[in-house]
Amino acid sequence: xxxxxxxxxxxxxxxxxxxxxxxxxxxxxxxxxxxxxxxxxxxxxxxxxxxxxxxxxxxxxxxxxxxxxxxxxxxxxxxxxxxxxxxxxxxxxxxxxxxxxxxxxxxxxxxxxxxxxxxxxxxxxxxxxxxxxxxxxxxxxxxxxxxxxxxxxxxxxxxxxxxxxxxxxxxxxxxxxxxxxxxxxxxxxxxxxxxxxxxxxxxxxxxxxxxxxxxxxxxxxxxxxxxxxxxxxxxxxxxxxxxxxxxxxxxxxxxxxxxxxxxxxxxxxxxxxxxxxxxxxxxxxxxxxxxxxxxxxxxxxxxxxxxxxxxxxxxxxxxxxxxxxxxxxxxxxxxxxxxxxxxxxxxxxxxxxxxxxxxxxxx
Length: 363
Hints:
Helix content is 28%, strand content 25%. With 363 residues, the chain is α/β, with parallel strands linked by helices.
């Protein structure tokens, strides 16, 4: 029996490298040979036991790979064949629930909770649902996007964070020419939001961070930000007003990790009639000093953002393939499969002396 190496999460903060059977496929499914799997804050939350994922599970929800085997109907449906490189969306939709029928498949819960690559438990056949592995099963309702094969895997796999940037910073708030955009947090999703907002024609882009984020803030400027603010050394509210002519930012993208305070601050940064997108999860912590009257009197629109759409992924892939933006400057680490735990801990800032912006696991 042919097997694949796979990292299996068996409990919070516990990963094991195992050999699992390579799935058989039918006419509607496929087998993906993994080239790289991106790592983001959700991986750290899943590793810590914060995300409601049933264990044991093979993590990895940002897969990039090459079609190893594919059924005839799947090849026709996806427009790909053996040897093609594809980026795979995290969500595996059901296709028939209210969200799917309404065109919001990223909210699909029709297959039971959060159903997607990296989140489906090992006891659900065929088991290899995640991309921390040599091979991954592609479900008939997986969504794939072709990606050029001449692009380095560690760059091509940025389709996921950059797709989030296009959805969170452009699609949801309808960002366009003339808008001032404030990005709270210079992590990989924050930097991706800068790239996406610049591509959408935003007028002024501002990024906030902490003193320890000096390297990331400098990179934000290289990727298109006009101004950066160290919130520990500057009066951020006053600086935002100064940079926006006293109006505040038309669009505020909140992507800080675990810190709820910036959510309340966003109400002070945003312009009257402006839009706030909340995309940074906080470990279910409450937001202190949230003044709801500011939402009322300023007529602020607040939207949550969790997943990404196909349109945003396509925008990301086109930008990556264009080579117009030095996205490779975001990439800091490649980790072999056996070092997946260290990869997650590095991204989460748990290892002294190690700092990651964008990392990936490479089988």
